[in-house]
Amino acid sequence: MRRQRRNGSRTVSYASREGPAWRNRVFVWVSAGLLLAASWTMMWSLETYWNPLFFVSTWVSATLLMYSFGPSGYPGWRRHLALALVSVPIWWWFELINARVQNWKYIILFEYGDVGYALLPSLAFSTVVPAASSASRALRAGEIVAGAVSLALLLALPAQFFILVWVAPFLILDGVVGLR
Hints:
This protein is mainly alpha-helical. It has 2 domains: about 1-135, no CATH class; about 140-180. Helix content is about 65%, strand content about 5%. Strands 1-2 form a two-stranded antiparallel sheet. Strand 1 and strand 2 (about 10-15) form a beta hairpin.
């Protein structure tokens, strides 16, 4: 059942808990929750060539859960795909920064080859921005300035401000997206 209410000069529609939109959200909660549990379990209990795919399914299901709990729900596959495509070069940027700050290294159990090493991590990296987008609806004010300051501190003093490697680009990009 859809209900409408007046909000200033516009009419806002929303689904009640009785309608199909509510049932769809419950379906997403159950199915994404089961996928999340299965993927998480396999990612940490199995050592296979395909572990990067378990990582991907863990984060895709977590992202779907976060979107389903949000006020506007899932934005659609086109927006999700666009965010995923933006995510890959951003994460490779983190890898480039890590070449300088040397804060983490990967323990690789299997030989993936050049193509496999490019594709599987890129697929895993594609989950980062959609997950961050689904979790960050409230942050907007002052993010661009805070991101620029964070980036400057990171580059000037990488050992002391390493944590900002994760924060700076998110603040800048999320602030720019929030301006539209």
